[in-house]
Amino acid sequence: MRSRTPLDLVEARPGPSFTVTFDGREIDAMPGQSIAAVLWSAGVTSWRSTRGEGGPRGVFCGIGVCFDCLVTVDGRPNQRACLLPAEPGQVIRTQEGTGHDER
Amino acid sequence: MSADPHLAVVGAGPAGLAAALAAAARGLRVTVIDSAAEAGGQFYRQPAQGLGARRPQALHHQWRTWEKLRDGLAAHIEAGRITHLKGHHVWCVERKPHAFIMHALLGPEQQEPAAVRADAVLLATGGYEKVLPFPGWTLPGVITAGGAQAMLKGGLVLPGRTAVVAGTGPLLLPVAVGLAAAGAKVAALVESADPKAFVAHTTTLTAHPGKLAEAAQYATALLAHRIPIRAHHTVVAAHGTERLEAVTVAALDADGRVRRDSERRISCDTLAVGNGLLPHTDLAEALGCRIDRGGVAVDEEQRTDVPGVWAAGETTGIGGSALSLAEGHIAGRSAAARLRNTQPDPGAWTAAARARSRLRRFFSALDTGYALPAHWTEQITDDTVVCRCEEVPAAAIREAVDELGAGDVRTVKLLTRAGMGWCQGRMCGPAVAGLTGGEQPPAKRPFACPVPLGVLARAGAPGETTQG
Amino acid sequence: MTGAACALYAARAGLRVTLVDRGPVAGGTTGAGEGNLLVSDKEPGPELELALHSVRLWAELAAEPGMGAAVEYERKGGVVVAAAPQGLAALAGLAVEQCAAGVEAVPVAADELHDLEPHIAPGLAGAVHYPQDAQVMPSLAAAHLVRAARAAGAGLHTGWTVTDVLRTAGGAVRGVRTDHGDIHAPAVVNAAGTWGGEVAALAGVRLPVLPRRGFVLVTEPLPRMIHHKVYAADYVADVASDSAALQTSPVVEGTAAGPILIGASRERVGFDRSFSLPVVRSLAAGATRLFPFLERVRAMRSYLGFRPYMPDHLPAVGPDPRVPGLFHACGHEGAGIGLAPGTGQLIAQVLSDKTPDLDLAPFRPDRFPEKEAE
To answer: Is A88 near chain B, with CB under 8 Å?
Structure first.
């Protein structure tokens, strides 16, 4: 038996999916999902390394309060993955440290 | 432009919507300003439209109440009485003579500004989760209970396949049931409260048949999903390297200390933790509103002590969606009368006022029952990161207290940077207060969210365009 | 900060010291500052001498084992920029006078400015570089100086409020009364900063210390993109001004921890702690003019503090001739962190009946009229 998914539960009929890239890899996204939701769906749970210890981080609060899920999207660092909707063709990158280039 | 008084409502959750509907129905022009893409707040968070959910109610409780709010909002928007500004993150409410200006950042990127001018403001900014550190809590896969729920309700996703739900408080039940219903295996529901603690409040708690029925529904659902409940237990540590692999759970003794002999390891890839909610009070604090026991202090009409500022819902103290609806309704009616320079008639909202008193009593009884392990700070090892943003370990906080003469949260922050990072102490505040051995003081955050300096440089400057 | 430095130098001079504060360590103006150790913003005169002396002492302190890193001491240097040629001429003139007084000041031509600060706005007229300017993290500095003072034997009572200055029948100081009991001592040093006037009043003397409010804006953490303390030439004029009205001039610097700090506003509004959007707006505007890349950098918070302002912009340092045994070490306005070690050492010297390294006459606490002139 196929295991149940959240989509089944609410009888979802998502619009046409599209792709984004995460660290160069193409992954599928459904319209309206946040970047965090898209990454979770692809089995990715961390997309930032901290500026002190370099530890992995991903979603923590899920509602935009904790800033743990910061990620670089289309070259812009420090975007909250839990708030930012996925858009076709987005280039999502693991964010290192402050997210700003060392210049 | 209409001459009707203009009320800005910040927040489109149950409190904000109830307030907006009550005020608009009584002739005010209302602008609802909210950060999300859809109304509903955290409690009625809706799946993104593109996901085409035909039965979103499968993830919700009290759906009929939501339908009423949603349809009421739509009708007022249609009639031009309510404007709903979505995707507006209000970072500051500025008080001007006879007016307020809501300064907001637009959309998820939050780079572009928007400003709304109104005659009065009603703060319904809700709450966020209270979390406490333990070894391993920064591992990916450890999320807040509310976060798990938000990701599920909004994005229809699960963080993994096997989850443990832990902490204390009434939110854990719906989260565990929601995760299980959506297909996750919930390996344990770990609640630190001692079931015996609720006995003393039986009278208050059983005075709410609706709440009892709700509890019974959850109990049935837990059984149906075969979710083991471990009451008077706590998560001692989370394990893993790149992500969560297991947690150690232990029983608490009569003093609330961990019983080491009871420790057992549970394999899981998700840990959803929460210890109740904390009110979002930043906008109110920056306006100078008095804060009482963590929430915005309000009078019988839900007025704060700053003229022209009302507050309703979790921002005034945690009490759930039904209380938020009652408070919002009263606040909206009070504002509608006061902005027309008339005395409101409390007799017109007696039902809401009664519900408000009853629910406040109920949550206060619930709150004394749900409790953190009495000695939770002992579980925080020296190398446990307490401030997630600035990566401040417990050892640094203890050193500041024991050796550098810091006896309060503010000094600990200055000496360790705990609370100075992106989240501005929202996550570590309770833990730092616990480790310092004091109360958590009002945080004083002049910006409710980070603001680009270019936006700040022009905010409220002459020539800035405002709506309203 | 000043109290911590006084306690440290006095304890190291062999005196028995008890440090009393009604709040925590760094709970007053210290915790609300930026930690400037500046010579660049001072015109030749007694304050500059005290600053030069203090800069040397800070370097000595920072060289003690573990201290420099603990207090985040950084000799980053200051860069004062002028937007227009007239401003630059005035700035260069001041630099010449400062050099004569012992300050290192190096003129920087417009086309050299980007070598010092690669992200600075184009089109500025020029600048002066002050290599001696340095910075510490002020709260850490106070806490670690207190720790060192305790290691040298000083006692510490935080959360104790001084309610009276005890005096003999002849009027000489014999200690202080606190809400936790009396502390007896033949000498009392008033290092209460912005609240120094209140402590002086307890001893029956007038010391006109007034609060001058300042806001600081703090950005998100960044890699080091601003290398010096960079400020506009108007800052010197604002510091020297007597006006109660709001003045802001941009002062921008990176920190060891990552965030950029943006000051500086000055206004005399009493002890009003309410947030002021117009003030921080003006700080943000000034900073983005100096460093355009800051437009998209986010401000995370702001804080405010009250500088201890005295009408002639000089601190009160030394014995009070009106009350034997009473010493003052307060009123350093926005320079208290920088001037603290010099002040502490001078106080320790006069407490030990030694000749102070600097002439204390300009800092006499009784130099003001007994009655408010305004």
So the answer is: no
The residue among C220, C277, C337 with the most chain B CBs within 10 A of its CB, best to mutate, is C277
Rg, chain A, Cα only: 14
- Pairwise CA distance, residues A38 & A92, whole Å: 11
Pair (B136, B263) in one structural domain: yes
Which long-range contacts does B34-38 make (Cβ < 8 Å, 24+ apart)? B34/B10, B34/B84, B34/B85, B34/B86, B34/B88, B35/A64, B35/A83, B35/B87, B35/B88, B35/B89, B35/B90, B36/B12, B36/B86, B36/B87, B37/A85, B37/B86, B37/B87, B38/B86
Chain B residues with CB under 8 Å of C298 CB are 450-453
For B142-206, the DSSP string reads EEEHHHHHHHHHHH---S-SEEEEEESSTTHHHHHHHHHHTT-EEEEEEE-S-GGGGGGGHHHHH
Our count of domains for chain B comes to 3
Q: Does A15 touch chain B (CB under 8 A)?
A: yes
Which of C220, C278, C287 is nearest residue B450 as measured by Cβ atoms? Answer: C220
CA nearest B288 in C: which residue? C274
Q: Domain check: are B209 and B113 in the same one? A: no
Kindly provide the ipTM of the predicted complex, given to two decimals: 0.95
Beta carbons of B274 and B145 less than 8 angstroms apart? yes
Query: Å from C149 to nearest chain B CA?
Result: 11
Query: What contacts C366, CB < 8 A, 6 or more positions away?
Result: C205, C320, C321, C322
The residue ranges of chain C whose pLDDT is under 70 are 235-236, 371-374
Q: For residue B137, what is the nearest residue in chain A, using CA coordinates? A: A60
* B173 backbone φψ class: left, alpha, beta (φ>0; ψ -120 to 50): alpha
pLDDT score for C86:
86
Q: Which domains does chain C show, CATH number per domain?
A: 2-71+137-208+312-363 (3.50.50.60), 78-129+210-309 (3.30.9.10)
Residue B71 to residues B21, B74, C85: CA-CA distances in angstroms? 10, 5, 65
Q: Quick one: closest CA in A to C117, which residue?
A: A103
C139 interface with B at CB cutoff 8 Å: yes
Q: Are C143 and C25 in contact (CB under 8 A)?
A: yes
Cross-chain Cβ contact A103/C225 below 8 Å:
yes
Expressed as residue numbers, the domain containing B293 is 6-128+278-344
Q: Are residues B123 and B29 in the same domain?
A: yes
Q: Is residue B69 part of a domain?
A: yes
Is residue A1 predicted with pLDDT exceeding 60?
no
Of residues B288, B407, B420, nearest to C158 (C-beta): B407
C116-131 pLDDT per residue, tens: 999 999 999 999 999 9
Tell me the CATH number at B395: 1.10.10.1100
Query: Quick check: is B104 in a domain?
Result: yes
The answer to the question of residue B117 being in a domain is yes
Same domain? For B316 and B425 the reply is no
**Whether the model pTM is above 0.90:** yes
The residue type at A12:
A
Interchain CB contact of C146 with B (< 8 Å): yes
Do B248 and B285 lie in one domain? The reply is no
d(CA C318, CA C328): 5
Same structural domain for residues B146 and B265? yes
pLDDT tens profile B242-293: 999 999 999 999 999 999 999 999 999 999 999 999 999 999 999 999 999 8
Q: Could you give all domains of chain A from N- to C-terminal order, each with its CATH number?
A: 16-96 (3.10.20.440)
Residues C371 and B87: their CA atoms lie apart, in Å, by 58
Which residue numbers in chain B have pLDDT < 50? 1
Query: Any alpha helices (H) in B242-349, and if so which ranges?
Result: 282-287, 320-338
pLDDT of amino acid B405: 84
CA distance A3 to B181: 11
Read off the DSSP letter of residue A69: T
